[in-house]
Structures are given as structure tokens and as C-alpha cells.
Amino acid sequence: MMIDLAETTTDRIHEAIRQARQRLGGPASGMVLTLVIVTDEAAQYDAVRSASEAAREHPMRVLAVITRRPEAGSRLDAEIRVGESGPGEVVLLRMYGALGEHADSVVTPLLMPDTPVVTWWPGTPPQIPASSALGALAQRRITDAAAATMPHDCLASLASHYNPGDTDLSWTRATPWRSLLAATLDQPHGTIRGGRVEAERGNPSAELIASWLSVRLGAPFENRVSGGPGVTAVIFDTSDGEMTLTRPDGRLAMLRRPGEPERRVALHRRDTAELLSEELRRLDPDEVYAETIAPFVPAPAEVKRNGGSSRKRATASADSARKDTTR
């Protein structure tokens, strides 16, 4: 069921949702959370579709906040979808004029009572997600550094202003890699002296994997550019020789260990709906993500000298973090 409300209010939206649920015979009490999507008109279709697919695993109310024409007079239009593509509810909130600067005052009355709130920025996130108006409403805040113009600088900003509950889809994309790498390192191997992560240029997941390995293993891992797609290889420099996990086609990975036959492992690239579903399975702070992103915090002296943008800052911070872990 779809309902369009022009020049409306939150009271009318709430009543329309209630009446739609009654007509469909389904109570709203089965919702487990509210997902607030902060997006624009161009990106809202893909974001809402991914959220609707994730709602099959996590029944939820989706509130898509779309700011339009800030120079216009204040107005709120709503598009309500109930029972269209899953068990959840979707409300597109189009805010015009000054109303867009106070989106939290529109969203707050529409939150599901006594359920967690998650805020997701599919595009470029705010500098401090936890301090933004819509981020402050949420227990969990999901960003995506890969959508930023300069992903590395975005990671540095997120690291500098990290708050418990923050996470990033670039980190979620690395989950299958981290699982395979952890399983690989559970097997006997030589002393790890360092290594490298290869990926297409500007891939933040590769930077996070390298940081994770550096922090966890206390050895230097660097990033190198490859042809993609996504992350294509992780190479360990060990005392027994190179140990490699490569994925040249984005689907099948090959594990090579010194003195052992090559093994093939499924390692496909996941879509946004899968990533979102994974993040919504846990709403507690991700401590491993916090440890991994910490080395991206730029050193004050280097920020001043380099104007706030340099790969060397993260490398220096990572070296400092590795020294701390080996003391």
C-alpha cells in the first residue's frame, strides 16, 4: 500500500501508517528497530531498496530523510509504503526550505517506541556522525567512506571523531577477508615480518584490512594499487616464504602457502543490502573497528604541515599503534 501526503505533518503521517497497518491486518509491534537514512533524491532509490531487502531479516521502520531546495519555503511531503516489499514500513520524508535544517524534529515523533535507532549515511557522512542532529538520535551510526570523494581523508575524519556505536560499510566489506585471513593464520606458519594488501586505487576496505593486520600482528602492512575489482590480494612475508590470498575476479579466492597445494575459496563481493543486514545484527559498539581505525587519526604536527591530507599521516599513526601493541 502506498500513500502520498503533500504539505503534511508528523501527526498525519503517523495516523496514515496506523490506518494502513489496520487495513493490512498487520500490527507494527513486530518491528525491531528504526532505520533513519540520510540521503538525497538521486541516491534514495538504491538506499531504500537495500534497506527494504535488509528488512526481510530485520523488520523495521525506514525513515528516508531527503532535503530538497533549501531556498524554498518550509514544507514536508511524505510517501508511505506499507507491505510493499517486505514486513517493514518505509516513509520517504521530503523536506523543503529551513525545515531541512531541523530534520530531527520531524524524525523524532516517527521513531518506533522502545526500539533501537540506527542512522545510515549512504553518501558522504558528516564530519562528526555522533554529533549530527540525526546521528545523536541513534545507538548505531553507519557511514560509507567509499562514497566519499577522498576515502582516505574520510577515514581520517571518522577516526578523529570516533564515538562508540560508529561503524563504516568499508569495514563491513572486509568481513569475509578478515574471516579467511584469521582462519589462515590459525594454521601453523612462519614468523610474519610484514606484508601488503592490494586493491584498486582509493579502496578504504584495503586500508582498513592493512591497519587491522598491522595492529593485530605487530608487523608493518602496506597498501598497493592493483587493477581491482575491490581488494584483490593479501600477501604475508613470513620466514617460510610468501603466503598469499588472491582474488582477481571478485568471486573466487586462491590461498597459497609455502610447501602446500593451492586451495580455492568462495569470496564474492557483497551488495549493500547484505552489508546493511550484517551491521544490523549487532547494535553494540564494535571495539575491533575502533582499534583498527584509530591509527588513521592524523598527528597534530603533520596535519598542520600537510594541510590535513596525506597517506603518510595514517602510516605514521599506524606505526605508533603497532609500537604500543608490542610493548
Describe the 3D structure:
With 327 residues, the chain is α/β, with parallel strands linked by helices. The protein folds into 2 domains: 2-169, 3-Layer(aba) Sandwich (Rossmann fold), CATH 3.40.50; 173-266. It has helices at residues 10-24, 44-54, 103-107, 151-160, 169-173, 175-185, 204-217, 272-280, 287-293, 300-306, 311-325; strands at 2-5, 33-39, 60-68, 75-82, 89-96, 117-120, 140-143, 166-168, 192-199, 221-225, 231-238, 241-246, 252-256, 263-266. The strands form 2 sheets. Strands 1-4-5-3-2-6-7-8 form an 8-stranded mixed beta sheet, with helices on both faces. Strand 9 (192-199), helix 7 (204-217) and strand 10 (221-225) form a beta-alpha-beta unit. The longest helix is centred in the N-terminal third of the chain and has 15 residues, at 10-24. The protein is elongated, with a radius of gyration of 22 Å. Mean pLDDT is 88; it is low at 308-327.
Which bin fits the share of residues in helices? 25-40%
Total beta strand runs: 14
Provide a count of the helices: 11
Average residue pLDDT: 88
Strand order of the largest sheet: 1-4-5-3-2-6-7-8
Known CATH architecture of the largest domain:
3-Layer(aba) Sandwich
CATH top level label of the largest domain = Alpha Beta
Strand content is 25-35%
Give, in order, the helices and strands. Answer: EHEHEEEHEEHEHHEHEEEEEHHHH
How many angstroms does the end-to-end distance come to? 61 Å
Overall shape: it is elongated
Largest sheet: 8 strands, mixed
List unreliable stretches of 5+ residues.
308-327
Q: How much is the radius of gyration in Å?
A: 22 Å
The name CATH uses for the topology of the largest domain is Rossmann fold
Q: What class do helices, strands and sheet pairing give? A: alpha/beta
Number of domains in the coordinates?
Answer: 2
